[in-house]
Design brief:
The protein is about 45% helix and about 20% strand. It is α+β, with helices and mostly antiparallel strands and about 325 residues long. Strand 5 and strand 6 form a beta hairpin.
């Protein structure tokens, strides 16, 4: 249902659950939950509310105060609060938040154990899976179908388990590698577009600084370097296999500014795009393989990509703009 809270957008909603006595004795159970679009100026301060609160910041940020500590939870991060104790939170910026108040016979032991893993802000690799569990739980109440309390408990348990298994620094290496591989695949599929670090970190469900650290560790280069390597490999193939103008190739591999492309190309290969096109030097191809990513772009695909787009009339080769 819609909320009437001050400084909460009209498209926000909240759902309330009254657990059965059986659920109180056996399970985790949700009490109220929602998806809010906070407006600047939102403030909330409570002395107590009998529940624990999970907050996920999808956009913006939320400043939280509890137990004499104040910290800011940013995009892609979680907070876990003990609402039995005094607490407050506020935001001075537009903020999207998915939140869940819950309780249960094991809620406090879980809360206290999670706090040994994460001091305040919770940053994990399984953000997408965790948010999916939160959304699934909310959707089950939004649909007004018969609620399966055991299943609701399982979803909450899944969320808390992700917090326990991944403490931000010791998340499973296999999960980190899988996340980096997904990010690399996204870059390979979308290198012709404007790929920002903000978007990549959001796609991975991590803060920018955390995403850069994880990506660099498992890819052996920064996200920016990987984007550049993919674009340069695509450009080198188009230079060897087509008669496209340098300007066209620059645009087709994701560079809006030809000067930036030419400077980057020369830094990568040690020569200008025109010189590279004229050269059949196998040593340069070997250098591409060493500095690029083997097999990430198929030459036929690169050629097809170029041929699918309008081509400007051919002109005599002009000096590179560097």
């Amino acid at each position: 249902m819609r909320t009437q809270e001050e400084h909460v957008g009209e498209n926000s909603y909240v759902y309330v659950n009254v657990p059965t006595e059986e659920a109180k004795q056996l399970f985790f159970y949700p009490l109220h939950m929602g998806h809010y679009y906070y407006e600047p100026g939102y403030r909330l301060e409570r002395s107590s509310l009998d529940s624990f609160l999970i907050m996920y910041i999808a956009e913006g940020s939320m400043t939280v105060s509890q137990s004499g500590k104040t910290y800011t939870v940013s995009k892609g991060e979680f907070a876990l609060l003990d609402c039995y104790a005094p607490h407050s939170y506020y935001t001075d910026t537009a903020t999207e938040c998915i939140w869940l108040h819950f309780d249960g016979v094991l809620a406090r032991p879980y809360y206290e154990y999670i706090k040994t893993k994460h001091e305040d802000i919770i940053t994990i690799m399984s953000t997408i899976l965790t948010v999916e569990r939160m959304s699934r739980l909310i959707d089950s109440y939004a649909s007004r179908e018969t609620i399966n309390e055991a299943y609701s408990s399982k979803l909450i348990n899944d969320i808390l388990t992700y917090f326990i298994v991944e403490d931000g620094s010791t998340a499973l290496a296999s999960d980190k590698k899988a996340l980096v591989e997904r990010a690399k695949a996204f870059i390979r599929d979308n290198y012709t577009t404007d790929i920002s670090l903000d978007f990549l970190s959001s796609y991975a469900g991590l803060s920018k600084s955390h995403f850069i650290r994880v990506f660099t560790k498992y890819a052996g280069m920064t996200p920016h370097q990987y984007v550049t390597s993919v674009r340069m490999q695509a450009a080198s193939m188009l230079l060897r296999a087509t008669s496209l103008q340098i300007t066209d190739i620059s645009e087709r591999v994701g560079y809006k500014n030809i000067a930036v492309f030419c400077i980057g190309f020369r830094k990568w290969f040690g020569m200008t795009p025109n010189d590279y096109r004229r050269s059949g030097n196998e040593e340069l191809i070997r250098k591409l393989d060493e500095n690029g990513i083997h097999g990430v772009i198929d030459i036929d695909e690169a050629v097809r990509t170029a041929q699918d787009l309008p081509v400007k009339p051919a002109k005599a080769a002009a000096p590179d703009k560097e």
